[in-house]
Fold this sequence. Notes:
85% of the residues lie in helices and 0% in strands. It is an all-alpha fold. Helix 1 packs across helix 6.
Amino acid sequence: MNAALALVARDLRLAYRTPGSTLTILAFFVIAASLFPFGIGPEPQILARVATGVVWVVALLACLISLDRLFQAEADDGGLDDLVLAPAPLELLALGKCAAHWLSTGLPLIVVSPLVAVLLNLPAEGYGTLLATLALGTPSLSLTGGIGAALSVGARKGGALLALIVLPLYVPVLVFAVAAVEAAVAGLPVRPLLFLLGAMAAFTLTVAPFATAASLRQAAE
């Protein structure tokens, strides 16, 4: 556990010493979402109908484009072998890498999401649920993305392969998160949908570290 926490601290120091990557992800999130009013028109009612889907799709893509650096640095400098051969369980180290990714990508997206929701005219009833869905769903995105990043590490055109692996696995989180916010706006119960997102996060937390570790061992051979 100490090794995993040290790995999280190291990755966070690297991320925030060179904040360009995090700022780039946030800039992509805001700019991409801001383009939708130009494409579909500035009518408030239309924007309100698509606001939740736009926020979640752009957040999903922002997480996706940041995944290629999750294990690539270790693969480039030979640190992948050190990671695999470390005395600490590789599953814990993989979990630490995914946690650092969420703290440097998912958490900033949650902080910025209300601004994007305002730009897209999301009804006020949906703000709390939107934040709840992002808090429950983005860890699943980072953990699932860790599997894809480990499978594609060192591969030629790994970015395209990563997208093909990860995007289908993101669909359930996207569907239930958008449904929860729309239910909140409509005045319907949202707890069942939030429980489903929490269950998916718990399942991913249980399974993803083992799948990621197995993929990293395969990549190191």
